Amino acid sequence: MPDLSNARVGVIGGSGLYAIPGLDQAEELSLDTPFGRPSDVLRLGTLQDMETVFLARHGRHHQLLPREVPYQANIWAMRQLNVRWLISVSAVGSLQEHLRPRDMVVPDQFIDRTQQRPQSFFGDGCVAHVSLADPFCPRLSELLAEAAASAMPAGHHLHRGGTYLCMEGPAFSTRAESLLYRSWGCSVIGMTNHTEARLAREAELAYASLSMVTDFDCWHNDHDAVSVEMVVGNLKANAVATEPILNRLMLSLNEQRPSSAAHTALADALITAPEHVPPKTRERLNLFTRSYWGSFPQD
């Protein structure tokens, strides 16, 4: 298990969350990666004495469609900054009656319906197959849920567990699709988290999501009554609600620094022997593989 004593927490903010209030001594870092530039500058500071890296998923001015988000660059940059616990804060639609607008869900499963997303850091002469049976880190999700349960403002309710349906977007579902996803037992619907979770697992980051409901998806009889103003209002309320939750979570993470199976996800996943991996690929993957294969090129 890697040394987590100096590891950092990453937070990726979705719709409505473009900064973290209370991030002390923050500096903006403009990074480049083998997969291009991240969505925006990364802000490194401290939150409750825990070193924290924040990134606006769609850019600080929300200029990136879900399929335009540079997911590989975002996850790479987080790992490059020694992030080992990654929290997604995301706006979602509800697929179930009991999940009301302004409720919060900490999901534990995914169904992926995306089409134009990066699937892996690997390829180009190197094969790896990580386990994704449990795509969210159970321990990190538990700590996140505990923080939400103890720190969420009035008017919000927490739901532990559930399936996040990840769709391509940017258009929302048809009514038939929404009813289909309900029949599958899905809880919420969004456009980003599965792609992040898949790549985070390859990067050996523990990943958890605070999925914040803004509205019912179009299956609901009252969907036509939902206005843009209502959704924006829920977005703003949810963004405000994250501050005490993240503060509480950082206290727990700083105290416990929990290990995760995700932190060694590549230990049994690397298939290609390193001597058969092309040099350019070895160098590109070195950030993830050096603890197993040694640094490349050799120091």
UniProtKB/TrEMBL annotation:
The entry's substrate-binding residues are M191, D215, F216, D217
Q: Which residues form the Nucleoside phosphorylase domain?
A: 8-240
Q: Reaction catalysed? A: S-methyl-5'-thioadenosine + phosphate = 5-(methylsulfanyl)-alpha-D-ribose 1-phosphate + adenine
The pathway that the record names for this protein is: Amino-acid biosynthesis; L-methionine biosynthesis via salvage pathway; S-methyl-5-thio-alpha-D-ribose 1-phosphate from S-methyl-5'-thioadenosine (phosphorylase route): step 1/1
Q: Tell me if Glycosyltransferase is a UniProt keyword of this record.
A: yes
Annotated EC? 2.4.2.28
UniProt entry keywords in alphabetical sequence: Glycosyltransferase, Purine salvage, Transferase
Q: Which residues form a coiled coil?
A: none
Which NCBIfam families does this chain map to?
A: MTAP
Q: Which family does it belong to?
A: Belongs to the PNP/MTAP phosphorylase family. MTAP subfamily.
What's this protein's name? Answer: S-methyl-5'-thioadenosine phosphorylase
Species annotation: Parasynechococcus marenigrum (strain WH8102)
**Which gene holds the coding sequence for this protein?**
mtnP
